[in-house]
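To fix ideas, we close by showing one paired sequence and structure record:
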Amino acid sequence: MSNDKGKPNIGHIDQKLDSTESRKIASAVGGLKEDELSLAWRSQLNAKLSEVSNSRRKKTNRLRLWSYSTGLGLSTVVAVALFITMIPSNMPTAQPSSADSLEGQMLTAHNSAVRSADIAGEGFSSLDETETISLNEANEWKQEDLEAL
């Protein structure tokens, strides 16, 4: 079906196109009424696709929210469980060997300071008041000090 130069022989196609059968088909197609394309179906298709897309998006958003909240809840449970297991059940208390030792005196002073701070709350304690008085006495000028200047 090809000639000497490698080109295909299209003579038989031309013969088929010029046949009476192809002329009848051409006249039948030419006699058809030309319809204008209606784009209403396209608009309906777009609306349906938009609905499907929105429903899928809502499902994925719900799934993400569910997975995030589940992960947060589980991590909170694990953190609380670890925190509870790390707290010792019986806290040891410091007991000095004797009340006369240096450690015993320091613990007694600390415990009394803590108790007085708990009772008094914010503000001056008796220790702060005595320190303030001694600082004021130190800042008083005497006549001799002024003459030295």
